[in-house]
Design a protein that fits this description.
alpha+beta, four-stranded antiparallel β-sheet, globular
Length: 81
């Protein structure tokens, strides 16, 4: 079963740099980065084995990547995914 995520309008507005058409909201796990862990109110650490093209995906210290996407953050906090 695919769950389409609901995100606040405010978060969508803050995600003005999305270049993927908010594909992470479709609920397909392969369409969003896989989170390794969250840093309190900061960025999300991404599992480097699964990298997607995204303007919010930033190289931290090789081979670490972080996600600074407000929408992805809300999905993680709201749905634990």
């Amino acid at each position: 079963m695919i769950i389409k995520y609901e995100i606040s309008k405010e978060t969508i507005k803050r995600t003005f740099g999305c270049t993927s058409g908010f594909r992470c909201l479709d609920g397909e796990p392969y369409l969003r980065c896989q989170i390794d862990r969250a840093i309190e109110d900061g960025p999300l650490n991404v599992k480097s084995s699964i990298l997607l093209k995204c303007g919010y995906m930033l190289s931290w210290e090789h081979p670490e990547y972080i996600c600074a996407c407000p929408t992805r953050r809300e999905i993680y906090e709201r749905y634990g995914k």
